[in-house]
Amino acid sequence: MSGTMRLTDDAIRAALTPAADVRAPVGLASAIRVAIDATPQRRRGVIGWAPSRRTRLALQLVAVGLLLLGLLAGVLLVGSHLTPTPPPSVTTYRGGPERTGVMPGPGPIGTPRVEWSVGVKGPVGAGSPVVQDGVVYVGDESGYVSAIEEATGTILWQLDVGAAINSGLSVADGLVIVGDDNGVIHALTAVGGAETWHHQTGGPVHSSSAVIDSVVYAASLDGNLYALDLATGTLHWPAPVATSGAVSRGIAVANGVIYAGSGGATATDAGALGAYDAATGARLWTAPLQPGNTSTPMVADGKVFVSGGLDGPAEATHLLYAFDAVTGQAVWPASFSVPTGDMLLPGAVADGQVFAESIDGSLYVLDAASGSKFWTAPMQATLSPSGGVVGGVFYATSDDRKIHAFDIANHTETWAILVKGVPSAPAIVDGRIIVGTGLGQVVSVAGTNPAPGAGTTR
């Protein structure tokens, strides 16, 4: 057989049949090559591979997908440079307007040590420092607000507001909000400390404010709640709203409701917890408590936790209550008290557990659903609600000048560290625990190992 043979299905089948007694016709291979070369979609590529039309379409789709992914990654990379993730912050007393004590963290990693300690103008009370954008803000009983560089302890500015500060601070939209014993609520610029506005109340302001949607919610010993525009300080409601008595501790705000405990320092001052509509100030419900002042409410999982009888008769049995946040009905079979009847100070609520310290020298951890005791641990007496939770650790301060760390899962204290003076409630952020003290110090406790976010500067 000579010349170029005609390529037929039978010829191809014969060429591919593996039978030993069948020979491929002469010239078959040349004919196949000619036919393939004449078919564009089956020409070989530079690597000797010839993909089918369907394969080439799939490859084109994959290439387009990879191109889009690359463009998206580029946009995200550029965006990350334009708007970097802000460092974690503690912008108000107990970490948030719900006052749960849950902090952004992390806490110290490794062995705790005093990283820096700096003196301010006067003693610092129970309210915790606040931390934002690498700056610590704290008020003292000499009437000064101080701004301190978080990483180094360097004082950036100080301002005298004119009267002792016994309230916690809040930071929002570049403003530091603080109340004083002259009954004045001040708004200071976070950079520089210039006062932008102030509002006069009818009594000393010992309550930590809360800022929600550009409205400052605050309370005074005059027994009133105030809602002020964050930018201007003007009244957000037509007038202040009266509670059942003097408000001496922080207020909580959650889900459009303000929770304020009221009372007084004598046995004749009835205690109460009230819930108020944040939009209008209208009272939603009131629950009676034992005589005396009330603690800062904590709101979590549809419940409000508060203790009563503070600053009142020492011989009374002091109680810790839980109420339905919507109805005000009690949710525990009975309010909790310690065996000695001593005062209880709730410091945090997290993961279905309520952490409360008592002046009997113990930490009590309760089931948030039932009020029954989970576990307890010794820690020395405390006169201030002073806790914070990060992950599986509860941090607390005590009147023997210590900061303690408790492993929640193991129910044990893992370490304690001594600081200069009785410490305030803690701010726990960037691998640090930052407290003010009764000796006029602001102290940062860090770990021997670096933590994510530590070292942030303004």
Count of individual helical segments: 3
Q: List unreliable stretches of 5+ residues.
A: 1-5, 19-24, 41-48, 73-83
Mean pLDDT equals 86
Rg on CA atoms, Å: 34 Å
Can you tell me the overall shape?
A: globular
- What's the total number of strands? 31
What is the class of the largest domain in the CATH system? Answer: Mainly Beta
CATH fold name of the largest domain: Methylamine Dehydrogenase, Chain H
Sheet with the most strands, sense and barrel status: 4 strands, antiparallel
Count of discrete structural domains? 2
Strand order of the largest sheet: 1-31-30-29
Percent in helix: 10-25%
In CATH terms, the superfamily of the largest domain is YVTN repeat-like/Quinoprotein amine dehydrogenase
- The separation of the N and C termini measures 90 Å
- What structural class do you assign from the helix and strand content? mainly beta
Write up this protein.
- With 458 residues, the chain is mainly beta.
- It has two domains: 9-38, no CATH class; 93-449, YVTN repeat-like/Quinoprotein amine dehydrogenase (Methylamine Dehydrogenase, Chain H, 7 Propeller), CATH 2.130.10.
- It is built from three helices and 31 strands.
Keywords:
single chain; mainly beta; 2 domains; 4-stranded antiparallel sheet; disordered N terminus; 458 residues; Methylamine Dehydrogenase, Chain H; 10% helix; globular
